[in-house]
Amino acid sequence: MAAIVCLLLVNVSGVEGQTAAPEGSPTAPPKLALLVYQKFQFGKASERQKLEVAVSHACDRLAVPNSWIDLESLTGPPEALFFDPFDSFEQTEKAFSIWGQIYPTHPELARLQQQLETTLVSERTVIAVRRDDLGYRAMNIDLSKARFLRVLEVRLQPGHENDFTEAFKILGAAYEKIDSDTPWMVYQVNVGTPSPSFLIFVPMSALRQNDDLLSRGKSLRDAEGEEAAERMQQISREAYASTESNLYYVSAETSHVSKEFAAGDPDFWTPKKQANTKSEESAPAAKPKP
């Protein structure tokens, strides 16, 4: 429970100065997230970075079936976490099928992917489903504005999913009482982990938003009340097998997002394209040949 408190007491508003992303918007939290964790070999970070950039640029030129946000670790072991948004399992299945057709017809992309795999120590993939009943103002989140994500993974003892649900409803109610501007989104792992697991994502636009941790803590505990706080502690003792909290930064250069998503903040997601467009607009018109 200490990890949950440390993660969610922080005044980290990922929606600073922005409007809510409506349901169905490409920048809103997706219904389904395919998450790929990659740990890479010591000394291979630079090589891997170059390969990821090359893959991203290649996919920008192709009609690939899905997008992804590349999250690079700032804490914990060096790793990347790829966040792939989907609307359904059916869409995920179609994407896998299309990728199976892309690689044979684009051998250069297949070669880059094979080279990437040689830089890795390990890789694991999970698929998680958004839990609207457990997130806090999740529809206020615009992922195109996120520059950092705090990610908390909670693994439960078997049969304790309802206890986790109860704990986060208590926490959400306390946040509502203090009218916190700290939204988070919760995903329940459907496949990919040996025990029942949940993932909590807190997007941030800047790291300085962590600075209000202590001032938020007391008001939140007061809002919970003594009885609810004791129940939360009981749940943490009995239900949680483990918790792990890490901080990631968003790498635009190695991500592949849709034009609609990039339009949420084009200066961040497509800076080169923006610079080229402005240069073309400011250039003098070519004179007709005599």
Structure write-up:
The chain has 290 residues and is of the alpha+beta class. It contains ten helices and eight strands. The chain has a single domain (30-270), classed as Alpha-Beta Plaits (2-Layer Sandwich), CATH 3.30.70.100. Helices cover 40% and strands 26% of the residues. The chain has an eight-stranded antiparallel barrel with strand order 1-3-2-8-5-7-6-4, surrounded by four helices. β2 and β3 form a beta hairpin. The longest helix has 17 residues, at 45-61. The protein starts with a helix and ends in an 8-residue tail after the last helix.
CATH fold-level assignment: Alpha-Beta Plaits
Distance between the termini: 77 Å
The SS-based structural class is: alpha+beta
* Rg from Cα: 21 Å
Largest sheet: 8 strands, antiparallel, barrel
Helix content: 25-40%
Low-confidence stretches: 9-20, 274-290
Strand content: 25-35%
Strands of the largest sheet, in order across it?
1-3-2-8-5-7-6-4
Main CATH class = Alpha Beta
Number of helices: 10
Number of domains: 1
Please provide the ordered H/E string of secondary-structure elements: HEHEEHHEEHEEHHEHHH
List the helices and strands and how they pair.
Elements: H1 2-8, E1 32-40, H2 45-61, E2 68-73, E3 79-86, H3 89-105, H4 107-117, E4 120-130, E5 148-156, H5 161-177, E6 185-191, E7 197-204, H6 213-224, H7 226-239, E8 240-256, H8 259-262, H9 266-269, H10 271-282
Antiparallel strand pairs: 1-3, 1-4, 2-3, 2-8, 4-6, 5-7, 5-8, 6-7
Helix pairs in contact: 2-4, 5-6, 5-7
